[in-house]
């Protein structure tokens, strides 16, 4: 069955449908990871986005029971060169297409994904519509133009947990952490839990007072979809909390922290989405290879003088990490929890533990 | 960290001659390292015995030594050059082993040479299995269970715990030499013995079998700041149990989830840190149990490897170049990524295509060899292909192999089995073919699919992952759809009806192309013709598009034009308006067509760049310098078939295409390309044809008054017999249009000739067979020359040391000739000039002559680059391939200032390197069919010393004392006496078989007589095995003693004893030993030999 991906600038790609049928709109971005599609699909940060994978064979190892980053896939649509019908891996439980169909995710294959990627690289990430129903390009382009896009939009409310829940520490519970769920990835919780943190995951709109009532040792600000400026009241909450508790932010959490510090956030042309980004730790001089998934970034020059940039992306020199000089508050733009991606930066979770330990004394 | 300033001079060791397991990938890595370090201002001293390398070009290093790669010689070079550092990680296992030897003998300490890249401790930890095992245990990684043994008894005692099958791996060898799998006690004992012998330290590892597990490799790089990145992951199509060099491999890994991949990545990083490779690349191999994911580590190479070359070509990340820069102190984030320019090298390449590497074997060259694939590598070359999908890449790879296949079957060359109606017998045969890994197995998988085998069954038989098998099934099913195409489609494809805007046909055709089907396959399935299909395809708008290899999956703009073809929507090529010359490379290495031709292609690219042309390289061999994206202005990594080359020509519209440098591969394309209107520059294809056409060629010889051995061209066995009787036996018989003497023999009688004819028809069915009178006892000479159409300059005259009859590629030769009279040499020059002009040669020409007394016979003329061009260039100091390339674009010899009067005051000897050690049991006799894989050069002031160096370079040692075993035929008995006398005078003792012994003792020599194999025990083979023999001289005695000779030759190879089969060779050897014993060796670099070289 035919499917079409039409971009707001009029460019379109024909292909064959896989997964669910239907019509979806979103911002189309490309991801350069060669493995990890299951984690990418189920990462809530992709809410509002149609993801195209640059690696042409997707679905090779199927979908398994373990590699979920949340309960279900969140992408708006999925674009690949070839979707594998015959997964081969000892953990595989079902083919990718079947999984997407079950979760009502529209997929398109047979697309010249490299041409699409080059287009996005040159023209920037843009709004698009993916459809198996309406095959009229003009109509699809119009719909793409009219779709909401990401800027200023609160997507967090669509993926945050409806109510708080507790993740027990693995082994002895040494710390209590309140984690804001802006679309939190499961492996972040695993990383905290296995380091002895009992984690209370709270909805994005939880107030500072409610958080402090739990008497946490530390606050965690999670990853999540879209534009941090779409959720201004959360930024206000963060501003209140960082004065009081050790705080660690990842990805959207990092951007929220930036806004809370009074810095500005800008939209990147096509963002960083992949598992091979070179991040320089400016303190040690070492390079970490990291997974990234973001379209917005904290603007370096707008950071106040008591905040240091700690990490930098070597490809485009953008801010990848920051740390407050006086407060035990730090964050990174990239994903130390990996999943998918390299494990080079897992030390950041250790640092969070140290900050909490230190603050307690 | 900035680069080190305490180092000024760095020694780099090359990997020596091309052998199985160590091919031109190390020329690629070494050449990259030389360039990278000279760029940084270091003075480079390079040592390699292989003249056919780019790295030994005098402009690649400051001091270039073409000297034997043995520790004693290396020490002399160190003593002379006093480098501060030695970079041992770019010269393969040879380079690494030599570094260890130099360290162990104290040479590095004595001259204060620092090992950079990898220190001695790290090398030992990675190479010594027990140290490695302990290191892996420290970081919590599992190895297959194993134990070491130093004797057969120890091996037998331990096998109980491991069980069968068991893997036997000798320590410190390369290419897995001697490694094998035993399924029972008897095999086990035999293989352990062999393994103990193959190991230079007589140590064998017996290992739990992980046969059938999935095999992976990761290419890792580390810098001095301990940053580690993974450059590429590789998944083997063939399971564990088949050496990775003999496996089809795929990049990136296909069937690992991110979780599993990251575990492997973490393990690799832990390994490189624990082993302690300071800087540079390493290759780490893993096996994974497909049922539960249990991962064990197989081995780690603390150096750049064959897989690194593949990974570099597969990703665009130049591992060797970066490794060299890291070795002198840079960190990854300080080095820019050449391809993107804007981003640093401290990242992990991501690719948006699929890469398939397929090995190429040469079992047909070694009758009697076992074509089963095992843990010991046997392939002689490889091809790499890039496609957007595995299916496309696999089919492209199979047609790149140049084995007469145009994809996964469907090319008119089916195997024995029919698609439908497979009976029980057929099914059983296919099963057997799947169970046994051989070069043909991949084609039998197609047969199995056609015969209705299930994927599970095919997996059970082959242990090839179902993902691969399913993809192949997709291809075969696509073939089925093509076969079922309706009459309308077929008529269009036969050019019978004009395709109007036929969207469905277009979509169908495009899909087939996306599955990698070649026009040849489509022509086969639709009863059409390749060119017709091509034209229809183009009219329908189904054309190849070219995409970039850019390290980053298009995330950043790429500045390096490195392309592959696929069938998609967007094409990324931006043809320029400059004058463009396309150079067609040689494809996968094979015996007879290897690095020498790549060397010529690379020189053509360099030369034409100097002349301001844009150069476009087309090749499919990942091991080569020609496929370095730095070599030419544009690189197309594509199969060398008519279709693929024409697609590039369509896109680029080159002003000229060069076919005479890449060996037979591009030459075979010359005529069809010309027919398609492609401008071939240099010698015209018509002239190439004349040289191959005996009748036309004879007319030219007659016209010029030159002699040729009586000969004729035949098409049938009857004709062959008639010619043989007319000219008299022995006759030399061979098919026309083959390189490396494929299927060439000397027939002594009718029976021999008859049995040969059957085989020859198979090797070259479309071409006639040549029958020549064989000139016994003649001296053979090779001449290379260049011609601009007006003037001819002789580049070099090489006198063969073996008599005529041994393939020129296998025989040692010396330049300048050392026994030929002045007037003979002059006459050779005149004849060469006359022939070059008569054939209208523009560029290179190679002529083989046989000289008997004062008579000169023309044996063969090749109006193209020959295998000897690099040797002649190194020996004379003139880059002849460059000269030839410039002539092809209209320069003249006069204009270039090239004249023929270079006098040499040194001798250079080329010696061939043979792969018999890899092929158990096969006969090692040399004949007109080429069997060598590589070559070395010895250069010195006298013939004796140059020859000694060449022998040292081949054998690693020459005995200076000990027992010489002599057994010669009656013709040679008189001539052997003075040689034996000289050996005795040098202090050797003599042993001989009865007849030879009688002659020697009657001439007053003291000689011990040994039994022949069929006479009594201990016989000569026993003596060889007991290592009581230092050197063997054994000239063929004719049919009667064939068995005896076979046994001696084989034993000599297995026990690595220098073995000489001709009187000429014996003479050369004794003069070499004389030179060695009286004076010892001294070393001298090319820059000193050729101070005025251009």
Automatic annotation (TrEMBL), chain A:
Taxonomic placement: Bacteria, Pseudomonadati, Candidatus Hydrogenedentota, Candidatus Abyssobacteria
Binding site for L-glutamine: 45, 224, 226, 252, 255, 293, 295-296
CDD domains named among the record's database cross-references: GATase1_CPSase
Family listed: Belongs to the CarA family.
Reaction(s) the record says it catalyses: hydrogencarbonate + L-glutamine + 2 ATP + H2O = carbamoyl phosphate + L-glutamate + 2 ADP + phosphate + 2 H(+); L-glutamine + H2O = L-glutamate + NH4(+)
Database matches in InterPro entries: Anth_synth/Amidotransfase (IPR050472), CarbamoylP_synth_ssu (IPR006274), CarbamoylP_synth_ssu_N (IPR002474), CarbP_synth_ssu_N_sf (IPR036480), Class_I_gatase-like (IPR029062), CPSase_GATase1 (IPR035686), GATASE (IPR017926)
Source organism: Candidatus Abyssobacteria bacterium SURF_17
Tagged with keyword Nucleotide-binding: yes
Name listed for the protein in its UniProt record: Carbamoyl phosphate synthase small chain
UniProtKB/TrEMBL annotation, chain B:
The organism's place on the tree of life at top rank: Bacteria
Catalytic activity: hydrogencarbonate + L-glutamine + 2 ATP + H2O = carbamoyl phosphate + L-glutamate + 2 ADP + phosphate + 2 H(+); hydrogencarbonate + NH4(+) + 2 ATP = carbamoyl phosphate + 2 ADP + phosphate + 2 H(+)
Residue positions binding ATP 1: 129, 169, 175-176, 208, 210, 215, 241-243, 285, 299
SUPFAM superfamilies attached to this UniProt entry: Carbamoyl phosphate synthetase, large subunit connection domain, Glutathione synthetase ATP-binding domain-like, Methylglyoxal synthase-like, PreATP-grasp domain
Residue intervals of the MGS-like domain: 956-1094
Recorded coiled-coil stretches: none
Residues annotated as binding Mn(2+) 3: 848, 860
Annotated metabolic or biological route of this protein: Amino-acid biosynthesis; L-arginine biosynthesis; carbamoyl phosphate from bicarbonate: step 1/1; Pyrimidine metabolism; UMP biosynthesis via de novo pathway; (S)-dihydroorotate from bicarbonate: step 1/3
Alphabetized UniProt keyword annotations: Amino-acid biosynthesis, Arginine biosynthesis, ATP-binding, Ligase, Magnesium, Manganese, Metal-binding, Nucleotide-binding, Pyrimidine biosynthesis, Repeat
Binding site residues for Mg(2+) 3: 848, 860
GO molecular function terms attached to this record: ATP binding; carbamoyl-phosphate synthase (ammonia) activity; carbamoyl-phosphate synthase (glutamine-hydrolyzing) activity; metal ion binding
The enzyme's E.C. designation: 6.3.4.16, 6.3.5.5
UniProt-listed InterPro entries: ATP-grasp (IPR011761), ATP_grasp_subdomain_1 (IPR013815), CarbamoylP_synth_lsu_oligo_sf (IPR036897), CPAse_ATP-bd (IPR005479), CPSase_dom (IPR005483), CPSase_lsu (IPR006275), CPSase_lsu_oligo (IPR005480), CPSase_preATP-grasp (IPR058047)
Region listing for Carboxyphosphate synthetic domain, in residue ranges: 1-402
Occurrences of domain ATP-grasp (ranges): 133-328, 698-889
Sequence segments annotated as region (Allosteric domain): 956-1094
Subunit structure: Composed of two chains; the small (or glutamine) chain promotes the hydrolysis of glutamine to ammonia, which is used by the large (or ammonia) chain to synthesize carbamoyl phosphate. Tetramer of heterodimers (alpha,beta)4.
Protein name: Carbamoyl phosphate synthase large chain
